[in-house]
Design goal:
single chain, 319 residues, six-stranded mixed β-sheet, 9 helices, 23% helix, binds 4-methylsulfanyl-2-ureido-butyric acid
Length: 319
C-alpha cells in the first residue's frame, strides 16, 4: 500500500502513531483491542499504510507490581499471536489493508518471557518480531520506590538483536522503550540501512533513582529519538502509553521524527490519540548519502571499545 505515483521517485508511507491512554489493571484484553480497533479505523480513514501501537499495549504496565506467584505474572503474557483477543485486530487490519506494529508480553512454548513487538503487513500476516534487548529497572523488590520497575525480573533479554525487514517499501526495524535511549540501537539498525524505526514505550515520568530527571522526561524522549533519526538518516516513530495509569503518571508525547531529526507530528493529549504523518523514505538518502555516508566517513577501527567492553574502564593514566 505504499504510495508511488507514476513517474515519481518518492516512496511515501503514511504512518499513524496510535498512542494509548492508560490501560487499567482490570481492563480486559478485548476491551483494549476495541480501543486499538477505533484507532485502526481512524488510521484507515486518514489513509495510513501502517499503524504503530505502544509497548505492552494489551495490559497495564505490570512491571510496576511486585508479583510472587508465577501464574499471576503469566496472566499478563500472550502464548500466541494472534491471540483470541487480538484476532479481531489482525483480521480488521487485513480487511482494511493497513499494517501494524504492536507491543505485547510474549510467553514462548519453551517458557521464555519476552517484551516483544510484532510487525504485521497489510495482508494481516506477521513480517517479523523484535524482543527487547535493553531491560531497564531492577530484579528484586525495592520497597523504597513508590512503584516498582521489574522488567529485569519478569522478562528474558532478547537474543536476536536488532534486525531489519523489507516492508512497506523500505527497510524497517523495531526497538522498544528503553532501547531508544541507547545510540547502539539506532546504529546497529543504521548499519543495516534502516529507513524506518518503530518504537513503542511506557515511560513513568517519576524516576525514583534520580527525581531531578522527572522534569526532563519529555526532553530526553525527544532528544534520543531525534538524535537517533538524524545520526542514522532514518524515520523514527515513537508511540507511548501515556497518562495516569493505576496512579503512575506516564509520558505521552508520541511523535514521528524525520531523518533530519525534526519532529513532524506529535500527540497533543495523554490519551488515545492518532498522530499521522506522510513519511517519504527517500528522504533518508539525503542524510545517508552525505554527512552520514557511513562507508566513506566511519572509522570502525576507532570504535572497538563499543563491542569489546560493557562498563566504563578508565585507563590507568587517566585515574
Ligand atoms: N518501559 C521502559 O523501558 N521504560 C523505561 C523506564 C526507565 S526507568 C526504569 C524507559 O527508558 O523509558
Amino acid at each position: 500500500m505504499v504510495t508511488r505515483e507514476a513517474g515519481e521517485m518518492s516512496r511515501t508511507v503514511t504512518i499513524g502513531a496510535a498512542q494509548l491512554g492508560p490501560v487499567g489493571l482490570h481492563e480486559r484484553r478485548d476491551e483494549v483491542v476495541d480501543r486499538l480497533l477505533v484507532l485502526l479505523h481512524q488510521a484507515h480513514h486518514h489513509g495510513c499504510d501502517l499503524v504503530v501501537y505502544p509497548e505492552l499495549a494489551l495490559t497495564t504496565f505490570f512491571p510496576r507490581y511486585w508479583l510472587e506467584d508465577q501464574a499471576d505474572i503469566d496472566a499478563f503474557f500472550e502464548t500466541e499471536m494472534p491471540s483470541a483477543a487480538t484476532a479481531a485486530l489482525f483480521s480488521a487490519a487485513a480487511r482494511l489493508g493497513v499494517g501494524f506494529s504492536l507491543g505485547f508480553a510474549e510467553l514462548t512454548p519453551d517458557g521464555h518471557h519476552f517484551n516483544t513487538q510484532v510487525l504485521v503487513g497489510p495482508d494481516g500476516r506477521e513480517i517479523g518480531r523484535y524482543r527487547k534487548v535493553h531491560l531497564p529497572g531492577h530484579e528484586e523488590h525495592e520497597p523504597w520506590r513508590p512503584f516498582q520497575h521489574l522488567e529485569r525480573r519478569y522478562f528474558d533479554p532478547g537474543e536476536e538483536g536488532f534486525e531489519v525487514w523489507k516492508a512497506f517499501g523500505g527497510v524497517v526495524g523495531m526497538a522498544i522503550c528503553n532501547d531508544r535511549r541507547w545510540p547502539e540501537t539506532y546504529r546497529v539498525l543504521g548499519l543495516q540501512g534502516v529507513e524506518l524505526v518503530l518504537i513503542g514505550y511506557n515511560t513513568p515520568i517519576h524516576y525514583a533513582p534520580d527525581p531531578s530527571q522527572d522534569i526532563l522526561a519529555g526532553f530526553h524522549n525527544a532528544l534520543v529519538m531525534q538524535a537517533g533519526a538524524y545520526q542514522n538518516g532514518t524515520w523514527v516513530v515513537g508511540v507511548a502509553k501515556g497518562g495516569e495509569e493505576e496512579g503512575v503518571a506516564s509520558l505521552a508525547q508520541s511523535c514521528i521524527v524525520a531523518p533530519s531529526g525534526q519532529i513532524v507530528a506529535q500527540a497533543l493529549t495523554t490519551g488515545d490519540e492518532l498522530v499521522v504523518a506522510r513519511c517519504d523514505l527517500d528522504w533518508c538518502a539525503r542524510y545517508k548519502g552525505t554527512l552520514f555516508d557511513f562507508d566513506r566517513y566511519r572509522r570502525p577501527e576507532m570504535y572497538t571499545a563499543i563491542t569489546a567492553q560493557r562498563g566504563v574502564v578508565v585507563p590507568p593514566h587517566a585515574r
